[in-house]
Amino acid sequence: MGLRDLVYRVYEHRLETKLSKDSVPRHVGVIIDGNRRWARAMGMRDVASGHRKGADKISELLTWCHETGVEVVTVWMLSNDNLNRPREELEPLLRIIEDVTQELVDAGWRISPVGALDLLPDRTANVLKNAKEVTSHRPGLIVNVAVGYGGRREIADAVRSLLQEHASKGASIEDLVEVLDVEHIAEHLYTRGQPDPDLLIRTSGEQRLSGFMLWQSAHSEFYFHEAYWPDFRRVDFLRALRDYAARHRRYGS
């Protein structure tokens, strides 16, 4: 171990010992941004190499979350807008997503797909559905794998599902208008039954949500980090938790 690694290890330990279990977020959402730019910065012509490196980092993230007491992690791997990318870029990315999903299943995590699976190719959708089915009984950390995800689409799907539910009971639109509140919509989101994210992290220096968890993030704290996702380290994650713990959360203002 080099001197620099030793210094970081000591610093990590110091950060971790100062974290109170009461201040750790229950739900952390992560926008894993910067894979392609990382690959180009490393001189790689094939951007899929960046996506593969970024996929490997996800397992590390889940271990960090488990170690610190996080209960739910949502990892945004692919937006619904990304499905319009050129075929030669999209297909390798989908294969990587399928591979990493299976790796997470094999590692013992509980997987919950988050997104419009009907927009995905059958092969990818089936991998995600199977991951949910075979891991649904597992205790501990819940891993939301956001693929084909978009915040506006999620809200539209929730409203559509709500209307269908009430129509199946013979209720009219007028009946629904009389009772509709925010909780009715929340019950039909992809993340229904889960706590809203307390902390949202985005890497690569971009300081925007790009439609990530639009409904659920109303009271979330945001943490933006300059590093490309493949370079995001455990010490960076602990700094995000420290920053979150130091904030005075104000709901509704």
In a nutshell, what does this entry contain?
The protein is of the alpha/beta class. The chain has helices at 3-18, 35-41, 48-68, 87-106, 122-135, 151-168, 173-179, 182-186, 234-246, and strands at 27-31, 72-79, 110-114, 142-149, 199-202, 221-224.
Q: Termini distance?
A: 47 Å
Number of strands: 6
Residue share in β-strands = 5-15%
CATH topology label of the domain at 24-149 and 196-246: Undecaprenyl pyrophosphate synthetase
What does this structure look like?
The protein has a domain at 24-149 and 196-246: Decaprenyl diphosphate synthase-like (Undecaprenyl pyrophosphate synthetase, 3-Layer(aba) Sandwich). The chain is built from nine helices and six strands; from the N terminus they run αβααβαβαβαααββα. It has helices at 3-18, 35-41, 48-68, 87-106, 122-135, 151-168, 173-179, 182-186, 234-246, and strands spanning 27-31, 72-79, 110-114, 142-149, 199-202, 221-224. Strands 3-4-2-1-5-6 form a six-stranded parallel beta sheet, sandwiched between helices. Strand 3 (110-114), helix 5 and strand 4 form a beta-alpha-beta unit. The model has no long low-confidence stretch (mean pLDDT 92).
Keywords:
single chain; 253 residues; alpha/beta; Undecaprenyl pyrophosphate synthetase; 6-stranded parallel sheet; 9 helices; 6 strands; 48% helix; 13% strand; globular; magnesium ion binding; Z-farnesyl diphosphate synthase activity
